[in-house]
Write a structure and sequence with these properties.
The complex is a heterodimer.
Chain A: H1 3-21, H2 26-48, H3 56-89, E1 98-103, H4 109-121, E2 125-131, E3 134-139, H5 142-149, H6 152-161
Helix pairs in contact in A: 1-2, 3-6, 4-6
Chain B: H1 3-28, H2 32-58, H3 62-91
Helix pairs in contact in B: 1-2, 2-3
Classes of the chains: A mainly alpha, B mainly alpha.
Amino acid sequence: MNKVSFTMSFVILYTFWILLSGYFDFVHLSLGVVSALLVSYTSHHLLTGDVRAEDVSIEMKRIIRFFLYLPWLFYQITLANIDVAYRVLHPKMPIDPRILRFKTDLKTDIGLTTLANSITLTPGTVTIDIKDGEFFVHAISEESAESLLSGEMQMRVKNIEGD
Amino acid sequence: MDLVNVISYSLFAIGSFFLVVAAIGIVRLPDFYTRMHAAGKSDTLGQSLILLGLIIHEGASFISIKIFFIILFIFIANPTATHAVAKAAFLSELAPWKKDGGKER
């Protein structure tokens, strides 16, 4: 069993338990310990993956950079929603959907997941599939396809991954 | 009416607007993939704005922290679900709608 990922899962889950329960008496806290231990024993590899002790600081840095990436993402999401609202409410519906594919050199799970979910949330594009580092994306119009292929988002996500 | 109420009520209104847009989009758009755009994006922002309005309405309390975590969860779960459904359609070779009526693939 991987002790590092077990401990990390336990800490994360127990913090979350305390936040969600909001009670600080003995019964609730000890029930939380039992539940968190049980869940981290059975499925710790799902939450943190197979991390080694020397990787923990790198992972922490990635998580911090991920939170720094969020403001830009929220800005893009607002743009996306105004774009979708415009296209849906316009009487002629100016859409011209297409499927595009592009290669990415992202390596880590957090990088690929972040890019896929960001694509889905931002202007006019939905991720359909990832196969061997190749993204299949459905774009609702030509402009949104072009803005994705310009690669600004990929650069920012790559920045999260670091080295 | 104080400022907190004004802000939270306008967030409710904007959030509801995006939810209505998502519903109209699902009815109006021509095929499955384009409907994913309406469902995947407008729903996420609409729900989050309404929850954000609730946070502001509630003020700093334990409930606000919980609502904040629900927002985080929606932002991870909603695009993932959209992606899963879109992938299922793609794997079962549903052809996307084209503007000129042609078929891709």
